[in-house]
Amino acid sequence: MRDVHETAPYQRYLEGLARGALVYQTCASCHKAIFYPRPGCPFCGALDLSLQDSKGLGTLYSVSVVYDKVQNYNLVLVDLDEGFRMMSCVPDCAAPAIGSRVKARLEQLDDQEPRIVFDLVEGDAA
Ligand SMILES: [Zn+2]
After folding, report:
1. Ligand 1 centre and the CA of 71: distance in Å?
2. Which residue, 27, 98, 99, 111, is the most exposed by fewest CB within 10 angstroms?
3. What is the C-alpha separation between 106 and 15, in angstroms, rounded?
4. Domain check: are 71 and 113 in the same one?
């Protein structure tokens, strides 16, 4: 019987966060990047996936600003350099520009699950 952690991809994502890493998978068959971690490749169906640590550098693919009574915030889609896309936010910028370079950071707020957010990277052209 396989170890339960091997069969629980989201658990491996959380384990990555626990050591400050943003993890994703690559497929041994079609070589695509996969996020979130999952049991099989969504592109070709292969089960031979390996876990990787992302360098956390990416480019903003889209930005939505949410206007709120208390404080406006944004939702972004980030294209990571390794070839996968994820939803997150850029907490320290009201309305970041599409195409901005960003770097992942682990955010741990009181009473909340740790999460990956992004900071703008100055002078790092795409
Ligand atoms: Zn594949």
Report:
1. 41
2. 111
3. 13
4. yes
